[in-house]
Amino acid sequence: MSRKLEALDRRKARVRRALKAAANGRPRLSVFRSSKQIYAQVIDDENGHTLAAASSLDKGLKADLKTGADVAAATAVGKLLAERAKAAGVTKVIFDRSGYIYHGRVKAVAEAAREVGLEF
Q1: pLDDT score recorded for residue 2
Q2: For the whole model, what pTM was predicted?
């Protein structure tokens, strides 16, 4: 494994430890970004279930997006995820940036989810 991936894994574990302490029973909004797509899901860690998920590969979004790897795609994914989470009865979450810097696409997902009504 490369040093870059090892460093990402260490950051991810550090962020998850802090989230676990602060979660207080709230589901976790987890973000994963690749070089070509962005994925987000709301996870209930107590039961180990995914409550809602969205990605730039969803049929409704993929047709509207130029690419899955820009801030516009991340904003659309954040809005879609928040709508699905609210439909599943989730209003309060804790944001898991997965070791990524809170900037760009990760920040766009978070802000779009907040606009639709998720609280974190």
Answers
A1: 84
A2: 0.91
